[in-house]
């Protein structure tokens, strides 16, 4: 299949604007023979003539005239794309995309990012909030270079970053607080607010879904808000419960705490990147005054 290059269209336009092949060659810093050969190849590919030589001028044929507006638009778009790609190359290279599970303490996350930006103010950071299997998918797809979650895919470098304690809570006004000997079977009769898995290819179950009546939300922040409004009970990270004065821990007689181990994973090819190494170090260091538990 014959293809016409952008450069051929560029020479075609130059001949039109300059009035001849020699003049077009001067404008494009090419020889007249190079321009003539390129336009001839263009005409052969199309199967019709584009110019008629009148004296020393190259004049468009009616067919050539009909192609000129589209040719100008095509070359203009190609020039714009090239300019945009070059001008944004540095900013694209200066972006770190990370995926952080909703359970990871937000005060710790944003404290780490604040300190990171002090060291690298020109680096753009894209944060993807994830739940359960979504972090692994983003790492597998190469969308992010660093992720924090309870499960990691193969072919990434991982390490335990922290454990997060979750406790059963309900609104302070909930009648569940009146039962001083509340058991896990008791909770199975209540409405449970749960967080859905954000994964697109698979769905993980936390294993704590004992209730048949549920309200499903997207992240820890929504879970906290739903519980504060009195929609049943849920397992909330301790750090989130401490930031939500409208909910209180339930008086369970057993199973008071559920613990989730979170791992940090980075793409293997980025392991020696000094920016990523610093961000990893900061995420491993809890912000002063904010415990993981």
UniProtKB/TrEMBL annotation:
HTH lysR-type domain segment(s): 4-61
Q: Which domain of life is it from?
A: Bacteria
Question: Is Transcription regulation found in the keyword set?
Answer: yes
The record ties this protein, via InterPro entries, to: LysR_HTH_N (IPR000847), LysR_subst-bd (IPR005119), WH-like_DNA-bd_sf (IPR036388), WH_DNA-bd_sf (IPR036390)
The alphabetized UniProt keywords are: DNA-binding, Transcription, Transcription regulation
Signal sequence extent: none
* Cytoplasm among keywords: no
Q: Which PANTHER family does the entry link to?
A: HTH-TYPE TRANSCRIPTIONAL REGULATOR, TRANSCRIPTIONAL REGULATOR-RELATED
**Similarity field:** Belongs to the LysR transcriptional regulatory family.
What is the protein's given name? Answer: LysR family transcriptional regulator
């Amino acid at each position: 299949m014959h293809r016409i290059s952008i450069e051929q269209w560029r020479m075609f336009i130059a001949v039109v604007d300059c009035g001849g092949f020699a003049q077009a060659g001067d404008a494009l810093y090419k020889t007249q023979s190079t321009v003539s050969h390129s336009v001839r190849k263009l005409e052969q590919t199309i199967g019709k003539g584009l110019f008629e030589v009148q004296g020393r001028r190259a004049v468009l044929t009616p067919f050539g005239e009909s192609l000129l507006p589209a040719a100008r638009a095509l070359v203009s778009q190609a020039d714009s794309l090239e300019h945009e790609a070059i001008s944004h190359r540095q900013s694209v290279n200066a972006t770190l995309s990370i995926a952080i599970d909703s359970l990871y303490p937000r005060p710790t996350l944003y404290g780490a990012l604040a300190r990171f930006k002090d060291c690298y103010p020109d680096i753009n950071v894209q944060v993807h909030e994830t739940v359960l299997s979504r972090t692994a998918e983003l790492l597998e797809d190469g969308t992010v270079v660093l992720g924090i979650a309870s499960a990691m895919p193969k072919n990434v470098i991982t390490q335990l970053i922290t454990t997060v304690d979750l406790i059963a809570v309900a609104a302070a006004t909930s009648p569940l607080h009146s039962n001083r000997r509340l058991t896990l079977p008791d909770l199975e009769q209540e409405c449970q607010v749960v967080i859905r898995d954000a994964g697109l290819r698979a769905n993980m179950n936390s294993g704590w879904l004992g209730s048949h009546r549920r309200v499903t939300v997207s992240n820890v922040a929504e879970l906290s808000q739903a519980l504060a409004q009195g929609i049943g009970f849920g397992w909330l990270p301790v750090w989130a419960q401490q930031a939500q004065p409208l909910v209180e821990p339930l008086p369970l007689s057993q199973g008071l705490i559920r613990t989730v181990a979170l791992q940090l994973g980075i793409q293997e090819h980025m392991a020696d990147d000094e920016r990523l190494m610093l961000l990893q170090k900061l995420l491993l260091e809890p912000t002063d005054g904010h415990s993981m538990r």
